[in-house]
Write a structure and sequence with these properties.
Protein name: 2-octaprenyl-3-methyl-6-methoxy-14-benzoquinol hydroxylase
Distance between the termini: 25 Å
Shape: elongated
Helix content: over 70%
Number of strands: 0
Order of helices and strands: HHH
Number of helices: 3
Radius of gyration: 16 Å
Oligomer: single chain
Strand content: under 5%
Largest sheet: none
Length: 67
């Protein structure tokens, strides 16, 4: 691969990588916090995500790179 191709690939992938990194940071902060309001919010959001149907499928596809 040429240097130009690598730069272009990095430019295309950077937004997706930053989104996934930010998402993982949010998960870490959310699950490492034991304050009762935070635990309630986390559980409510997880329950919502579990029952989100097609949205859940789309997010999973995006997470594994299938968009």
């Amino acid at each position: 691969m040429t240097q130009q191709a690598l730069v272009q690939y990095e430019r295309l992938r950077r937004p997706d990588n930053l989104l996934m990194q930010t998402g993982m940071d949010v998960f870490y902060k959310g699950f490492s916090n034991t304050l009762p309001p935070m635990m309630f919010a986390r559980n409510a959001i997880l329950k919502l995500a579990e029952h989100s149907g097609p949205i859940k499928q789309q997010v999973l596809k995006y997470a594994i790179g299938l968009k």
